[in-house]
From TrEMBL:
InterPro entries from the UniProt entry: 23S_rRNA-intervening_sequence (IPR012657), 23S_rRNA_IVS_sf (IPR036583)
SUPFAM superfamilies for the chain: IVS-encoded protein-like (SSF158446)
Name listed for the protein in its UniProt record: Four helix bundle protein
A Pfam match: 23S_rRNA_IVP
Organism, as annotated: Mucilaginibacter achroorhodeus
Amino acid sequence: MGLTDFVYDYCKGLPIEERYNLIDQLNRCSCSIPSNIAEGSGKRTKAHFAEFLTTSLTSSFELETQLLICERRKYGSSDKLKQCLALVIELQKNDLQF
């Protein structure tokens, strides 16, 4: 959920015209990651949990792509963007080891 906090904070510095495009998508992806982990942890089998971790992982790659789009367009704080990208990559490494 720390990643979600960082993404929401980063989005505050994005252009207002991206409110219904990138900002909305970034926020939804960042919420989807911990939400799927939480939902999967309530499942009865490891196989079901793994499915939700996979969904979480795919959301992290979607989030990474959107952050890279922001980077290419030079949106927002580059420091905050780097923090978000570093957290996404760390999360992906941890999910891939499951």
